[in-house]
Task: inverse folding
């Protein structure tokens, strides 16, 4: 269940502007999320990582901070905990969202024993959604370093950057270096003596803020944090050394990198550091009117400084891709397929289909033998769901439906289909052409197909579809370039020899005219296509 914490913001929690300090908020977020993790695990838990955090609103002295934390999914020994922070004004009763974040906690076994976490009980539609998406977010975490290194390689191919070192007005990055040392004492740790992750985050925010202030000569405001990842533990008695430096400046924002090293007494004497954490914090600064101020340019002076400089650019590209993908409107058209956005676009693809399938209010419009057609209207968006009872195992249906080069064999709307890019085993980009409708040119599509196998038997197979933009495949005058906003299949096994196949498609007015025409009255065409799909699956699956 949820763990909730409500905390009034007192002056001791605030900065000079009377706003809740980001470090204090990070401590509260970590403590609440840790309690949720321990409530599920039944044992002590430690912070493994905190995903990218965006701070949308500031809380002021006298307002109430409310933090809700809930375990979304339990893996073998780790859990994803969702955290939502809101601020409530006691005078106006207005509530605003400060941040939504996701953290990973690891359960610590007692003694030499091993632990395997129980699955999360899914009681609501929202529980099911977050449970599915938690697996997608885990994929992003595991693939982050690969994406980052690819972006760095792309940056290295772009040429000489010696002009950066010659900028006359730029400030040397060395002038922003800050070092701070903290002694971990009992109030900073849990009952097992492990330092609270939130406490380390708070110390990192403090030293990063000082580093940023040396560049802007003002009071910086923390706006976001790249993923906190804890590489190792620290305990009571450790000396933690924090080193912060500005990596790069982006006009109205600055990235500060912080490295944390731990020493016990013996290591302290021998100067043998344990690297326990690194993070990148993004600050901006405002004037008295609340207007964003511009930061001076930064100049790296060493090879390592240049590495950090380019790393900051790569991380910014990933942040922008994340923001575009995770917070895009559901009827948003296709996005450019770039290295920085691949993981988030795949997440967006699967998430959109999962949300569409879970929507309430579907109305049945046709029933024919083992095929049912449902529709869902919301504003100018019309969604279609087709249910088919198919007499083949679910894994075979998944294999056949996830290969779009086979779709011409049952779907008359597919004239040609070719694979443009096999991104990995689970993601492919296809180019598809469709025959002309009366009074229209033939249509073509560039789509991303993301396929997912279930992690456990109760979950469906997923084949998610979304249009993307490839610079190598621009629109042609011969075709009408069409958009698939959200489509795909969910396949659930009924038995060893049958399954339920659900096809979904979301369309908007003026988009994909042949689908719009079918949905306004030609339901017979949809039934025919569904029947052909069912026959194709049972014929191929029965061999």
Result:
């Amino acid at each position: 269940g949820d763990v909730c914490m409500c905390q009034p913001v007192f002056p001791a929690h605030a900065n000079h502007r009377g706003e809740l300090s980001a470090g204090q908020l990070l401590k509260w977020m970590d403590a609440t999320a840790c309690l949720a993790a321990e409530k599920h695990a039944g044992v002590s838990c430690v912070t493994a990582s905190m995903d990218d955090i965006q701070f949308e609103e500031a809380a002021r002295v006298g307002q109430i901070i409310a933090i809700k934390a809930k375990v979304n999914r339990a893996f073998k020994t780790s859990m994803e905990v969702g955290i939502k922070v809101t601020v409530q004004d006691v005078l106006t009763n207005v509530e605003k969202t400060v941040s939504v974040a996701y953290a990973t906690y690891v359960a610590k076994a007692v003694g030499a024993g091993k632990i395997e976490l129980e699955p999360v009980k899914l009681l609501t539609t929202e529980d099911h959604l977050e449970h599915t998406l938690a697996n997608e977010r885990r994929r992003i975490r595991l693939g982050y370093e690969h994406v980052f290194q690819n972006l760095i390689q792309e940056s290295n191919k772009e040429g000489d950057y010696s002009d950066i070192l010659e900028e006359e007005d730029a400030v040397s990055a060395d002038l922003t270096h800050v070092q701070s040392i903290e002694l971990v004492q009992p109030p900073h740790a849990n009952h097992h003596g492990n330092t609270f992750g939130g406490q380390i985050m708070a110390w990192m925010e403090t030293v990063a803020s000082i580093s940023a202030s040396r560049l802007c000569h003002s009071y910086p405001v923390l706006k976001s944090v790249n993923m906190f990842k804890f590489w190792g533990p620290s305990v009571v008695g450790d000396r933690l050394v924090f080193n912060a430096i500005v990596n790069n400046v982006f006009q109205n924002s600055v990235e500060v990198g912080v490295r944390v090293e731990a020493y016990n007494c013996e290591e302290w004497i021998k100067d043998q550091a344990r690297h326990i954490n690194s993070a990148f914090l993004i600050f901006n600064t405002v004037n008295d009117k609340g207007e964003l101020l511009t930061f001076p340019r930064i100049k790296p002076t060493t090879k390592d400084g240049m590495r950090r400089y380019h790393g900051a650019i790569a991380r910014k590209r990933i942040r922008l891709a994340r923001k575009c993908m995770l917070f895009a409107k559901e009827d948003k058209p296709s996005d450019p397929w770039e290295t920085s956005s691949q993981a988030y676009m795949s997440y967006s693809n699967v998430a959109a289909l999962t949300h569409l399938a879970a929507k309430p209010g579907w109305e049945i419009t046709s029933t024919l033998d083992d095929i049912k057609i449902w529709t869902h209207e919301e504003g100018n968006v019309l969604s279609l769901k087709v249910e088919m009872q198919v007499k083949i195992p679910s894994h075979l249906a998944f294999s056949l439906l996830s290969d779009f080069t086979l779709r011409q064999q049952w779907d008359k709307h597919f004239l040609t289909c070719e694979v443009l890019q096999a991104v990995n085993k689970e993601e492919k980009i296809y180019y598809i052409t469709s025959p002309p409708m009366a009074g229209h040119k033939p249509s073509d599509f560039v789509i991303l197909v993301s396929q997912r196998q279930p992690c456990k038997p109760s979950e469906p197979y997923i084949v998610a579809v979304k249009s993307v933009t490839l610079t190598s495949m621009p629109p042609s005058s011969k075709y009408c370039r069409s958009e698939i906003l959200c489509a795909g299949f969910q396949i659930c096994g009924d038995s060893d020899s049958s399954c339920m196949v659900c096809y979904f498609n979301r369309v908007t007015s003026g988009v994909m005219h042949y689908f719009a025409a079918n949905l306004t009255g030609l339901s017979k065409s949809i039934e025919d296509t569904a029947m052909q799909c069912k026959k194709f699956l049972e014929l191929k699956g029965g061999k």
Remarks:
- Confidence is low (pLDDT under 50) at residues 327-331, 509-522.
